[in-house]
C-alpha cells in the first residue's frame, strides 16, 4: 500500500456508516474512485456507483459490488434518568456489546456514549450474555432533556468507536466495519490498477458501493435492477476458520493469507466461476474455495435473481471475528483479490456471454 491508498483506507474506515446512514462514506469512496472512472452516480437511497466505459460498441456490463454499510445500534427509548435503550442495526453481536464506546450520529454532530457494564463484583453468579433490551447507553447525563440536548433522538444511529490497527508490521489489519468497507477499498483499488496499468476493458465496468446489505441486501438489488448488468461479481467477507475452536468439517477450511475465496453453490453461476478459475490458474493468483449449499448470505443471492437473471459469482475476503470491533483481515488477501479482478476484467471480450445456452 502506498501513501494514497493508506490515506483513503484510513479515512474510509474511520467514517461511521451504519445501515441507512452511508452517504458520508459514499462521498469518500466516490471521490477516490473518480480519477479512474468516467462517471459517478448514486440512487435515491444512496447506493453509489462509478462506471468505466468500454470503447467498444454494444459492450456488455460487468457489475463489481461491495456494500458500504456496517452494523450498529439505533436508539429505541430514552428514560427519565438519561439512560438510553437501543436496538440492533443489522447483525450486531450483543454478547460483546457491554462496556464499549459507541459513536452516535447526533443531530448536531457526533456524540460518544458508553454501554453500561455492571462490575463483576456485584453481578449475579452465572450471568449470561445480555438480551438486546438489556443494553443501555450512558451519555453522562442525568435526564432525558440532557440527552436530547446533545442531539440524541429516537432513531439516532451509532457504531463502535474502534478504528484501524495494523498488526505484525502491517501484515494484518484490525478494525470494525472491515465487513464490508475493506471490499469497497478493493473495488476502488481495482479501478485504480486498471487505469495505472493502461488496461482498456472491452466490457463496461460498473463499480458499485451498495447500501443496506446488513438488513437484507437492499441496495445491490436496486442497482442491479436499474443498471441491468450482464454479469456480476459480488465481493464480501467470509469466515476464516483458522482460529481456535472452529470445526472445519462444519464451517469449511478458510485461512488468512491464502487468497480470496470463491463460492460454489446454486446462486453462483458455473460459467462465471469457470472463467475465474481459468484466470487465476493462468496468472498463478492464490485462491481458496468454499461450498454454499443454499445461499451465500451476500448480495449475490439477490443480484443473480434480478430481472431475467444475472450470471453472478461470490468472491469473498477471509475475515476473523466477523461482526465484532476487532475484525481481522490479511492485506495479502486484499491484494490477491485486486489482482484476480484485474485479470478477470482483462480476460473479457465483447462477444463473451456467461448465460447458459441450449
Q: Could you explain the architecture of this structure?
A:
Helix 1 (3-14) packs antiparallel against helix 4 and helix 7 packs across helix 9. The protein has helices spanning 3-14, 23-33, 144-149, 178-196, 218-227, 248-251, 270-283, 300-303, 331-347, and strands spanning 39-42, 48-52, 61-67, 72-78, 83-89, 101-106, 109-115, 136-138, 157-160, 165-167, 172-175, 204-210, 231-239, 260-264, 287-291, 312-319, 327-330. Helix content is 27%, strand content 27%. The chain is built from nine helices and 17 strands. It has an eight-stranded mixed β-sheet, sandwiched between helices. Strands 4-5-8-7-6-9 form a six-stranded antiparallel beta barrel. The model has no long low-confidence stretch (mean pLDDT 96). It is globular and about 65 Å long. The protein has 358 residues and is α+β, with helices and mostly antiparallel strands.
What are the key terms here?
8-stranded mixed β-sheet; globular; single chain; 6-stranded antiparallel barrel; 27% helix; 9 helices; alpha+beta; 358 residues
Task: Reconstruct the topology from this structure.
Layout: H1 3-14, H2 23-33, E1 39-42, E2 48-52, E3 61-67, E4 72-78, E5 83-89, E6 101-106, E7 109-115, E8 136-138, H3 144-149, E9 157-160, E10 165-167, E11 172-175, H4 178-196, E12 204-210, H5 218-227, E13 231-239, H6 248-251, E14 260-264, H7 270-283, E15 287-291, H8 300-303, E16 312-319, E17 327-330, H9 331-347
Parallel strand pairs: 3-12, 3-13, 13-16, 14-15
Antiparallel strand pairs: 1-2, 2-12, 4-5, 4-9, 5-8, 6-7, 6-9, 7-8, 10-11, 11-17, 14-16
Amino acid at each position: 500500500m502506498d501513501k494514497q491508498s493508506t490515506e483513503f483506507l484510513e479515512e474510509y474506515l474511520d467514517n461511521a456508516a451504519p445501515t441507512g446512514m452511508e452517504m458520508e462514506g459514499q462521498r469518500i469512496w466516490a471521490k477516490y474512485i473518480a480519477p479512474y472512472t468516467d462517471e459517478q452516480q448514486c440512487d435515491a437511497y444512496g447506493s453509489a456507483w462509478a462506471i468505466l466505459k468500454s470503447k467498444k460498441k454494444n459492450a456488455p456490463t460487468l457489475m463489481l459490488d461491495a456494500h458500504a454499510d456496517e452494523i450498529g445500534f439505533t436508539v429505541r427509548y430514552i428514560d427519565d434518568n438519561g439512560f438510553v435503550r437501543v436496538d440492533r442495526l443489522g447483525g450486531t453481536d450483543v454478547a460483546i456489546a457491554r462496556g464499549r464506546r459507541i459513536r452516535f450520529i447526533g443531530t448536531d454532530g457526533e456524540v460518544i456514549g458508553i454501554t453500561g457494564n455492571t462490575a463483576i463484583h456485584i453481578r449475579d453468579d452465572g450471568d449470561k450474555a445480555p438480551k438486546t433490551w438489556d443494553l443501555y447507553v450512558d451519555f453522562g447525563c442525568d435526564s432525558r432533556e440532557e440527552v436530547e440536548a446533545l442531539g440524541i433522538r429516537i432513531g439516532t444511529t451509532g457504531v463502535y468507536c474502534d478504528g484501524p490497527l495494523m498488526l505484525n508490521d502491517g501484515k494484518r489489519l484490525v478494525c470494525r466495519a472491515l465487513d464490508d468497507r475493506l471490499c469497497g477499498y478493493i473495488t476502488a483499488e481495482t479501478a485504480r490498477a486498471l487505469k495505472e496499468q493502461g488496461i482498456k476493458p472491452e466490457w463496461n465496468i460498473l463499480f458499485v458501493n451498495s447500501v443496506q446489505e446488513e438488513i437484507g441486501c437492499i441496495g445491490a438489488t436496486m442497482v442491479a435492477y436499474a443498471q441491468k448488468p450482464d454479469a456480476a461479481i459480488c465481493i464480501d467477507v467470509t469466515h476464516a476458520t483458522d482460529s481456535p475452536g472452529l470445526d472445519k468439517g462444519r464451517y469449511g477450511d478458510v485461512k488468512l493469507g491464502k487468497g480470496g475465496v470463491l463460492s460454489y453453490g446454486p446462486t453462483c453461476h458455473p460459467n462465471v466461476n469457470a472463467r475465474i478459475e481459468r484466470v487465476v490458474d493462468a496468472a498463478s493468483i492464490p485462491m481458496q474455495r468454499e461450498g454454499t449449499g443454499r445461499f451465500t448470505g451476500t448480495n449475490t443471492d439477490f443480484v443473480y435473481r434480478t430481472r431475467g437473471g444475472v450470471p453472478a459469482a461470490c468472491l469473498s475476503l477471509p475475515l476473523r471475528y466477523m461482526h465484532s470491533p476487532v475484525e481481522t483481515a490479511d492485506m495479502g488477501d486484499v491484494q490477491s483479490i485486486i489482482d484476480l479482478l484485474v485479470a478477470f476484467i482483462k480476460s473479457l471480450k465483447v462477444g463473451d456471454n456467461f448465460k447458459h445456452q441450449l
